[in-house]
Please model this.
Amino acid sequence: MSNTSTGLRIVHYPHPALRHLSKPLRRVDAELVSMIQEMFELMYAHKGVGLAANQVDLPYRLFVANPEGDRQRKDQEFVFINPIISQPKGSADAEEGCLSIPGLYAHVKRPERVTITAFNLRGEEMNLELDGLFSRIVQHETDHLDGKLFVDRLSATGQMEARDALEEFSLVYTSRQERGEIPSDEDARKRLLELESLRT
Ligand code: ZN
Model:
């Protein structure tokens, strides 16, 4: 094949994929591997440090990350398949953003340190104890796989501050649906369930 692009795109709030609770992945095939490569490309193109499958409209329990955000740092590229977070310790407050809600940034309180267990692309189990930015990334991305967004975790004040921006995203989204540029919520959900039945 001359064209290896699988045509993935980052979906924006309030796309239903962002509320999808992903089931564990049972099969990693060549097509999925090329989708994961494309997720890295999209993440770098949008200057992100993590990207969950939900964010490219895929119902799979995986995310990619590079805490350096630098495509030259291949040693910092991680694929987390079926991640489980445990042993949260401490508390840290820091600003977060999300490629699915571009332009919105807000402070989120999370455990400072966590342990994450997941499989990599070679099928090996990884066990990482993380703190700082990397800890925050894996918590934010694992939330995505549970259909959760960082705006769900804001303080009451933070939610009030984010409300107008989120309403604006919803208005834009609905009007694009009305113009037929993007699928209805019902069609989007149907597609997710079809893809899910292929690999979970
Ligand atoms: Zn995000």
